[in-house]
Amino acid sequence: MVFVAPPATAAWSHRDARSGFEVVYFQVLNAGWQIDGCTTAVEDGQAWVVDYAITVDTNWTTRSARVTGRSAAGSRSAVLEADGMGRWLVNGEQATHLDGCLDVDLESSAMTNALPVHRMALPVHAGSAAPAAYVRALDLSVERLEQDYTRTPDGGSHQSYDYAAPAFDVACRLVYDESGLVLSYPGLAARAG
């Protein structure tokens, strides 16, 4: 099953791990998509806001991410630029620890789990590693996150993937809508609109 174009806007309610909300807007570009979003949340007693603007190419490979965060500790920003071949700059500096990563994954966002699924276009029962440039919510530090996706049999118009991120001891099944956006992320978020 091929994904249809994303809607103009989508939203998620964040729960369990944190309490919050995320809203995102999609705009088609000549060479891909512009994805603008905002997440507000309270997690472990700390309130934060993360705004982001992500550009992906026609294959849904991340090309840039501009992230701004606010919390009681103040405001921060991070700019990630990628060549589409797995090499990155973070705030203008080479980030060799991210070599081989093709996606950005924001700790604050359920939406960013759509990026590798679109890019990989896995057939049922196939799996793949999808290491990502992972941006933390509170301080916007950028680290490498090893993660894996394995596509499971479809449920009607929905695709599902067994997802694992060993660094966080996370293993769950993610369910996606016909446009490849997460509907259900156990322990973290559910689609609200």
Please provide a written account of the structure.
It is a single chain. The protein is mainly β and 193 residues long. The protein has one domain (9-191). Helix content is 4%, strand content 57%. It is built from one helix and 17 strands. The chain has one helix spanning 114-120; strands at residues 9-14, 19-29, 32-43, 46-57, 62-71, 74-82, 88-90, 93-94, 103-106, 127-129, 132-135, 142-145, 148-155, 158-165, 170-176, 182-185, 189-191. A 14-stranded antiparallel sheet has the order 8-7-6-5-4-3-2-1-17-16-15-14-13-10, covered by helices on one side. A three-stranded mixed sheet has the order 9-11-12, with no helix packed on it.
Rough outline: globular
> In terms of structural class, how would the helical and strand content be classed?
mainly beta
Which consecutive residue ranges, at least 5 long each, have pLDDT under 50? Answer: none
Our estimate of the beta-strand percent is over 45%
Question: Cα-atom Rg, whole angstroms?
Answer: 15 Å
Q: How helix-rich are the residues, as a percent range?
A: under 10%
Q: What letter string, H or E per element, gives the SSE order?
A: EEEEEEEEEHEEEEEEEE
Task: Give the strand order of the largest sheet, numbering strands 1, 2, ... along the chain.
Answer: 8-7-6-5-4-3-2-1-17-16-15-14-13-10
The overall number of domains is 1
Main sheet summary: 14 strands, antiparallel
β-strand number:
17
What is the multimeric organization of the chains shown? single chain
